[in-house]
Write a structure and sequence with these properties.
52% of the residues lie in helices and 15% in strands. The strands form 2 sheets. The protein has a 4-stranded antiparallel sheet. The protein has a two-stranded antiparallel sheet with strand order 1-2.
Protein backbone atom coordinates (compact mmCIF):
# COMPACT_ATOMS: atom_id res chain seq x y z
CA UNK A 1 0.00 0.00 0.00
CA UNK A 2 1.35 3.39 -0.99
CA UNK A 3 0.55 6.61 0.80
CA UNK A 4 1.08 9.99 -0.86
CA UNK A 5 1.92 12.82 1.49
CA UNK A 6 2.21 16.40 0.37
CA UNK A 7 4.60 18.64 2.27
CA UNK A 8 5.87 22.09 1.33
CA UNK A 9 4.36 21.77 -2.13
CA UNK A 10 6.08 18.44 -2.81
CA UNK A 11 4.36 15.05 -2.89
CA UNK A 12 6.26 12.00 -1.71
CA UNK A 13 5.26 8.34 -1.70
CA UNK A 14 5.63 6.13 1.37
CA UNK A 15 5.00 2.43 1.81
CA UNK A 16 2.68 0.78 4.32
CA UNK A 17 2.71 -3.03 4.62
CA UNK A 18 0.61 -4.78 1.97
CA UNK A 19 0.48 -8.14 3.76
CA UNK A 20 0.63 -9.23 7.40
CA UNK A 21 3.34 -11.69 6.32
CA UNK A 22 5.65 -8.68 5.94
CA UNK A 23 5.54 -8.07 9.69
CA UNK A 24 8.59 -9.63 11.31
CA UNK A 25 8.69 -11.35 14.69
CA UNK A 26 10.77 -8.46 16.03
CA UNK A 27 8.20 -5.88 14.94
CA UNK A 28 5.33 -8.01 16.23
CA UNK A 29 6.89 -8.10 19.70
CA UNK A 30 7.11 -4.30 19.62
CA UNK A 31 3.44 -4.15 18.62
CA UNK A 32 2.48 -6.16 21.69
CA UNK A 33 4.27 -3.59 23.84
CA UNK A 34 2.03 -0.71 22.72
CA UNK A 35 -0.67 -1.54 25.24
CA UNK A 36 -0.99 1.19 27.85
CA UNK A 37 -0.15 4.07 25.52
CA UNK A 38 -2.67 6.79 24.75
CA UNK A 39 -4.66 6.19 21.55
CA UNK A 40 -2.73 8.93 19.76
CA UNK A 41 0.68 7.54 20.76
CA UNK A 42 -0.44 3.98 19.95
CA UNK A 43 -1.55 5.01 16.46
CA UNK A 44 1.70 6.88 15.87
CA UNK A 45 3.85 3.95 17.03
CA UNK A 46 1.79 1.43 15.04
CA UNK A 47 2.11 3.34 11.76
CA UNK A 48 5.79 3.98 12.42
CA UNK A 49 6.43 0.25 12.86
CA UNK A 50 4.41 -0.86 9.83
CA UNK A 51 5.41 1.81 7.33
CA UNK A 52 8.42 3.83 6.23
CA UNK A 53 6.69 7.14 7.02
CA UNK A 54 8.97 9.24 9.28
CA UNK A 55 7.63 9.62 12.81
CA UNK A 56 7.79 13.43 12.63
CA UNK A 57 5.59 13.32 9.54
CA UNK A 58 3.05 10.89 11.05
CA UNK A 59 2.17 13.39 13.78
CA UNK A 60 1.28 15.93 11.09
CA UNK A 61 -1.14 13.66 9.20
CA UNK A 62 -4.84 14.48 9.39
CA UNK A 63 -7.10 12.24 11.47
CA UNK A 64 -8.99 11.00 8.35
CA UNK A 65 -5.65 9.93 6.81
CA UNK A 66 -4.64 8.18 10.04
CA UNK A 67 -8.01 6.38 10.10
CA UNK A 68 -7.58 5.13 6.52
CA UNK A 69 -4.09 3.75 7.26
CA UNK A 70 -5.14 2.07 10.53
CA UNK A 71 -8.23 0.54 8.87
CA UNK A 72 -6.06 -0.91 6.13
CA UNK A 73 -3.63 -2.40 8.66
CA UNK A 74 -6.55 -3.88 10.65
CA UNK A 75 -7.91 -5.52 7.47
CA UNK A 76 -4.53 -7.08 6.75
CA UNK A 77 -4.28 -8.46 10.27
CA UNK A 78 -7.77 -9.96 10.13
CA UNK A 79 -7.05 -11.49 6.74
CA UNK A 80 -3.80 -13.16 7.74
CA UNK A 81 -3.26 -16.84 7.01
CA UNK A 82 -3.78 -18.65 10.32
CA UNK A 83 -2.85 -22.09 9.02
CA UNK A 84 0.30 -23.57 10.54
CA UNK A 85 3.25 -23.16 8.19
CA UNK A 86 5.24 -26.34 8.77
CA UNK A 87 8.16 -25.32 6.58
CA UNK A 88 9.48 -21.77 6.57
CA UNK A 89 12.45 -20.06 5.00
CA UNK A 90 14.67 -17.62 6.88
CA UNK A 91 17.76 -16.09 5.25
CA UNK A 92 17.52 -18.58 2.40
CA UNK A 93 17.49 -21.66 4.66
CA UNK A 94 14.58 -24.03 5.30
CA UNK A 95 13.37 -24.82 8.80
CA UNK A 96 10.71 -27.32 9.77
CA UNK A 97 8.20 -27.12 12.60
CA UNK A 98 8.51 -30.00 15.08
CA UNK A 99 6.99 -32.91 13.05
CA UNK A 100 5.34 -34.51 16.08
CA UNK A 101 4.78 -32.51 19.26
CA UNK A 102 3.59 -35.70 20.96
CA UNK A 103 7.22 -36.86 20.69
CA UNK A 104 8.72 -33.65 22.08
CA UNK A 105 11.46 -34.39 24.59
CA UNK A 106 11.43 -33.34 28.22
CA UNK A 107 14.49 -31.18 27.52
CA UNK A 108 12.75 -29.29 24.72
CA UNK A 109 9.61 -28.76 26.77
CA UNK A 110 11.58 -27.71 29.86
CA UNK A 111 13.43 -25.04 27.86
CA UNK A 112 10.18 -23.72 26.32
CA UNK A 113 8.56 -23.67 29.76
CA UNK A 114 11.54 -21.71 31.10
CA UNK A 115 11.25 -19.10 28.34
CA UNK A 116 7.50 -18.79 28.93
CA UNK A 117 8.07 -18.12 32.63
CA UNK A 118 10.76 -15.56 31.79
CA UNK A 119 8.35 -13.76 29.45
CA UNK A 120 6.86 -15.05 26.18
CA UNK A 121 7.23 -11.79 24.25
CA UNK A 122 10.84 -11.37 25.36
CA UNK A 123 11.79 -14.91 24.39
CA UNK A 124 9.68 -15.55 21.28
CA UNK A 125 12.77 -15.95 19.05
CA UNK A 126 14.09 -18.61 21.46
CA UNK A 127 10.77 -20.48 21.54
CA UNK A 128 10.58 -20.41 17.74
CA UNK A 129 14.18 -21.66 17.54
CA UNK A 130 13.12 -24.73 19.54
CA UNK A 131 9.93 -25.42 17.58
CA UNK A 132 11.50 -24.72 14.16
CA UNK A 133 14.80 -26.41 13.36
CA UNK A 134 16.97 -26.96 10.26
CA UNK A 135 15.64 -29.64 7.90
CA UNK A 136 18.22 -32.38 7.44
CA UNK A 137 16.17 -34.60 5.14
CA UNK A 138 13.05 -33.98 3.08
CA UNK A 139 10.85 -35.91 0.68
CA UNK A 140 7.82 -33.93 -0.50
CA UNK A 141 5.88 -32.81 2.57
CA UNK A 142 7.70 -35.27 4.84
CA UNK A 143 10.84 -34.06 6.57
CA UNK A 144 13.25 -34.68 9.43
CA UNK A 145 14.60 -31.83 11.52
CA UNK A 146 17.89 -31.46 13.32
CA UNK A 147 18.06 -33.07 16.76
CA UNK A 148 17.68 -30.65 19.64
CA UNK A 149 20.94 -29.80 21.40
CA UNK A 150 19.91 -26.66 23.26
CA UNK A 151 22.22 -24.45 21.19
CA UNK A 152 19.67 -22.00 19.79
CA UNK A 153 21.35 -18.60 20.22
CA UNK A 154 22.34 -18.01 16.59
CA UNK A 155 19.06 -19.38 15.22
CA UNK A 156 17.00 -17.30 17.66
CA UNK A 157 18.77 -14.16 16.46
CA UNK A 158 18.00 -15.03 12.82
CA UNK A 159 14.37 -15.76 13.68
CA UNK A 160 13.79 -12.13 14.66
CA UNK A 161 13.21 -11.60 10.94
CA UNK A 162 10.75 -14.48 10.50
CA UNK A 163 7.16 -13.63 9.64
CA UNK A 164 4.90 -12.79 12.59
CA UNK A 165 2.14 -14.61 10.70
CA UNK A 166 4.11 -17.85 11.06
CA UNK A 167 4.82 -17.10 14.71
CA UNK A 168 1.16 -16.60 15.59
CA UNK A 169 -0.05 -19.75 13.80
CA UNK A 170 2.67 -21.91 15.36
CA UNK A 171 1.96 -20.55 18.85
CA UNK A 172 -1.75 -21.31 18.51
CA UNK A 173 -0.89 -24.86 17.44
CA UNK A 174 1.59 -25.24 20.33
CA UNK A 175 -0.83 -23.87 22.97
CA UNK A 176 -3.47 -26.39 21.87
CA UNK A 177 -0.90 -29.17 22.35
CA UNK A 178 0.11 -27.81 25.78
CA UNK A 179 -3.51 -27.62 26.96
CA UNK A 180 -4.11 -31.24 25.97
CA UNK A 181 -0.83 -32.34 27.53
CA UNK A 182 -1.64 -30.59 30.81
CA UNK A 183 -5.06 -32.26 30.89
CA UNK A 184 -3.37 -35.66 30.52
CA UNK A 185 -0.79 -34.74 33.16
CA UNK A 186 -3.48 -33.54 35.55
CA UNK A 187 -5.48 -36.72 34.97
CA UNK A 188 -2.38 -38.83 35.55
CA UNK A 189 -1.58 -36.94 38.76
CA UNK A 190 -5.16 -37.47 39.98
CA UNK A 191 -4.88 -41.21 39.36
CA UNK A 192 -1.54 -41.28 41.17
CA UNK A 193 -3.00 -39.43 44.16
CA UNK A 194 -5.95 -41.82 44.30
CA UNK A 195 -3.62 -44.84 44.20
CA UNK A 196 -1.43 -43.38 46.96
CA UNK A 197 -4.50 -42.61 49.07
CA UNK A 198 -5.82 -46.14 48.58
CA UNK A 199 -2.45 -47.66 49.60
CA UNK A 200 -2.26 -45.47 52.69
CA UNK A 201 -5.81 -46.44 53.71
CA UNK A 202 -4.98 -50.08 53.06
CA UNK A 203 -1.96 -49.90 55.37
CA UNK A 204 -3.98 -48.21 58.09
CA UNK A 205 -6.75 -50.77 57.68
CA UNK A 206 -4.37 -53.75 57.88
CA UNK A 207 -2.74 -52.36 61.01
CA UNK A 208 -6.14 -51.97 62.64
CA UNK A 209 -7.18 -55.44 61.52
CA UNK A 210 -9.78 -54.29 59.02
CA UNK A 211 -10.13 -54.76 55.26
CA UNK A 212 -10.85 -52.56 52.27
CA UNK A 213 -13.41 -53.21 49.58
Amino acid sequence: MEVKIKKKGKTKKYKVISSWEEVTLEKWVKLTELEGLTKAKEAEALISLLSDIPTKLISKLSLPDITVILSRIAQLQQGQDKKLKKIIEVDGKEYGFHPSLSDITLGEYADIEHFIKEGVEKHLPDIMAILYRPIVEREGDAYIIEAYDGKIGVRAEKFKSMSAEHVESSLVFFWIFVEEWLKILQSYSTVQREEMTYKMLEKVSLKSGGTLG
